[in-house]
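To whoever is on call:

I kicked off a structure prediction for a single chain this morning and the downstream step that reads the tokens threw a length-mismatch warning. I double-checked the sequence; it's 363 residues and nothing unusual in it as far as I can see. Pasting both halves so you can look.
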Amino acid sequence: MPDRRGLWAAVGAVVATALIAAGFGLAKIVENDSSPVADSASTTTVAAATTQASTTSTGSAPVAANASEPAAEVAVKVGPSVVLINNVQASSSGSGIVYDKTGVIFTNAHVVEGATTVDITFSNGRTERNVAVIASDVARDIALLRVAARDDLVPAVFAKTADVRVGQIAIAIGAPFGLDQSVTQGIVSAVGRIVPSFGNCGIDMIQTDAPINPGNSGGALVDKQGRLIGMNTSIRTSGATSTGSVGVGFAVPGDTIKADVDRMLKGEATDVAFLGVGQAAVESNGDGVLVGSVSANSPASTAGIRQGDVITTLNGDKVSTFADIRARIQTPKPGDVFEMKITRDGQSQTVKATLTKSPNCRS
């Protein structure tokens, strides 16, 4: 039997080098479509969770679960939907998720950066080589791959993003450090976090403390029923700890993924929409969301929204926090119309804003 201590030492050395080389230099978490946040974390970065590729797949299909162990049940249910992606051209690896039985698989755009094809290994050990990258949305960090249609493909089941709650169980499945079918558990730490994406764009994400490490990018974040709540994308790191999880990870929400995948499959543009309202220091008065600022020549400005207005509904849905507004801007397209009810000087009125393309995002 080979000395496994040598294997782990080698993997650790290679991964550390890869992380230093692959750091995307994304600075502190910042707000998009809102006022800037205070710079209280200038020494932190958000790092894309990719890792140096490993030629050995050490994972295997999950074993039978015990009903008293939610994570074990989830591993059995979701494991077949999660794949290991080797970006041979970049000598890196990540994870991916089966979208449907026609062979569509989605992952992060940064996982397949610089590649036209990748190698994919499924949970049963089957590997498909030279799988085509068919579309990519850099702004939201989502890319699509396509394998041949097969009856044994197991598509992920999506949860509704509106149903995701802070404090609920969150289970991550992916290939950290090339170790496919790895399972970690935590909770949803926050929703509506605006995190800088691979496309220099602030994207609404779910925050989790489920351990996410290099190679988890593109993998699944699911609830205790095994429904996909998001795709693991990045981790928050500090100057002292820049190569692994510190308990702050981020995932692209399921609703954002579904809307974006649908557009890419139809060949439509994936530009990020923009409203142009900024967050106030006190975001809510209890009846809606207080507007702290309005960008010049923005859709909000054109619609007549002013600083100090209180937005109570968007397209008929009540909003109570600025995160509610940001989340609802993730899936519409530029050109879509937002009907908003606002309160000004105690009087309610309805305004309509036609969303435009975000000036901050690279698609």
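Update from on-call: the warning came from a stale cache, not from the record. Cleared it. Sanity check on the structure: Helices lie at 4-22, 70-78, 254-266, 299-303, 322-329.
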